[in-house]
Amino acid sequence: MTRRPDLTADVSEILLNEEQIQAKVLELGRRISDDYAGRELTLVSVLKGSLPFMADLMRSITIPVQIDLMEVSSYGGAATESSGLVRILKDLSSSIDGRHVLIVEDIIDTGLTLNYLVRYLRGKNPASLKICTLLDKPARRIVEIAIDYRGFEIPDQFVIGYGLDYGEVYRNLRFVGVLRPEVYLDPD
Amino acid sequence: MVLDPDLDRRPAPAFAHASEAELARILDFYAVAWEYEPHTFPILFDRSGAVLESFSPDFYLPELDVYLELTTLKQRLVRKKNRKLRRLRELYPGVTVKLLYSRDFRALLFKYGKLSLAGMLTGADGQTTPPRSRGERPAASAPTRAHPRRSRADARARAAARLVGAGTPDDAEVTA
C-alpha cells in the first residue's frame, strides 16, 4: 500500500465536508436534547471510530448527559483466532441500570457488531436503549436494526475520515471521504 | 464476555461452498444464530401441482426471521439466482431473503481484513462439493429441513481440502 504524506491525496471524493457534518451533528444534538429532556441519559460510544462524532455530539446536546465508552473485538482481528467469538475489549465503566441509553456509532453497515452490542446492553437493564449513527450504509446490511437517529445515508463506498480508518490511518481527517481504491487494492 | 457460548459447540453442516463456511464463522463470531439450508421453498409447479423447481436459501437466521442467500458467482452468471429469488418473493411475500452477491462478500472480507482470501473463497475455486444437478435435492411441497447436520470440524476439513484441489467449471451453479 502506498500512503502519501498528505492524507487527503488518498481521497478520491469528499462525501461530507466539515460544515455538513457539523450542521448534522447540531441537528441531532437538538433532537436528542428535546427527546430526552427530563430523563437520565447515558451516551455509549463504540471505540474507536465514533470518537470524533461522540465528542461533537455530546457538546451539541444541551441536557445533562453521562458518557461511557465500549470497545469490542472485530472479526478477523487477533481475538478471532483465539476464541472465535466477539469479545468486549472495554466494558462500560458505570451501571446503566434504569438509565436511558443512546448508543453512538460512527457508521452502521452490516449491523453485526451493533446487533451484538444491543443484545449485550439490553441485558444490563437500561430504561430504554436507542441508536444514533452518523453514517448509515444500508447496502451492506445483514442484520436489520432500527436506527433512531441517523445522520447521513451513504452509498456503498469505502469511506474514511472523521473517525473512520483504513489500517488505523485517516481517522483524523475532518471530513468523510472515499478512499482511492489504489490505496487498498493490490496492484498485481 | 460471550453472549452465547453454546453457539460454537453446535454441529455444523457440510457447506456447499467455502464462502458459506466463512459467512457461518462470521455469524458465529457475532453470536448470530443460524441454520444452514433448513427450508426448501417450491417455486415452480406443473399443471398437476407437482414441484418442478425449488429454492433453498443458504442460511436462516431464526432470531431475526431472515434468510441469507450467498452467491459468489460472477455478476453475469447471477441471472438464474435472481430469477429464483424474484419467484420466491412473489410466492412467499412474508419471507425475507437477503441476497449477498460476490461484491458484497468481497466487501465483507475487505472489512475484516481478509480480502486476500477472496480468490479462494469465491467463484468455482471456493466450491467444496461438485455442483448439484437439479434432481439431487429432494423437492418438497412445503418448507422442510433439507440437509442432515454434520460436525463443524468435518465441514471445515472438507472445505480446506477442496480449496486446494478445486477444478470445477467457472459457471457452475454453486448453491441452491
Number of helices of chain A: 5
How much helix is in the residues of chain A?
A: 25-40%
Q: Oligomeric status of the shown chains? A: heterodimer
> H/E order of the elements of chain B?
HEEEEEHEHHH
Q: Name the CATH architecture of chain B.
A: 3-Layer(aba) Sandwich
* Structural domain tally of chain B: 1
Q: Give the CA-based shape of chain A.
A: globular
Cα-based radius of gyration of chain B, to the nearest Å? 16 Å
Distance between the termini of chain B: 36 Å
Largest sheet of chain A: 6 strands, mixed
CATH arch. level architecture of chain A: 3-Layer(aba) Sandwich
The backbone outline of chain B, from C-alpha atoms, is globular
CATH class of chain A: Alpha Beta
Order of helices and strands of chain A: EHEHEHEEHEEEEH
Largest interface: A-B, 28 and 29 residues
> Rg of chain A, please?
17 Å
Largest sheet of chain B: 4 strands, mixed
Instruction: Give the overall pLDDT of chain A as a whole number.
Output: 92
Beta percentage of chain A is 25-35%
Architecture overview:
The complex is a heterodimer of chains A (188) and B (176). Chain A is of the alpha/beta class and 188 residues long. Chain A has a single domain, classed as 3-Layer(aba) Sandwich (Rossmann fold), CATH 3.40.50. Helices cover 26% and strands 28% of the residues of chain A. Chain A is built from 5 helices and 9 strands. The model of chain A has no long low-confidence stretch (mean pLDDT 92). Chain B has 176 residues and is of the alpha+beta class. Chain B has one domain (5-165): Endonuclease, Chain A (3-Layer(aba) Sandwich). Helix content of chain B is 30%, strand content 14%. Chain B has 5 helices and 6 strands; from the N terminus they run H-E-E-E-E-E-H-E-H-H-H. In chain B, strand 4 (59-61) and strand 5 (66-70) form a beta hairpin. Chain B is globular, with a radius of gyration of 16 Å. Chain B starts with 17 loop residues before the first helix and ends in an 11-residue tail after the last helix. In chain B, 36% of the residues are buried. Chain A binds chain B through residues 74-77, 80, 83-88, 91, 109-110, 112-113, 115-116, 119-120, 140-144, 156, 158, 184, and chain B through 1-3, 5, 7-8, 25-32, 61, 64, 66, 68, 98, 100, 104, 107-108, 110-115.
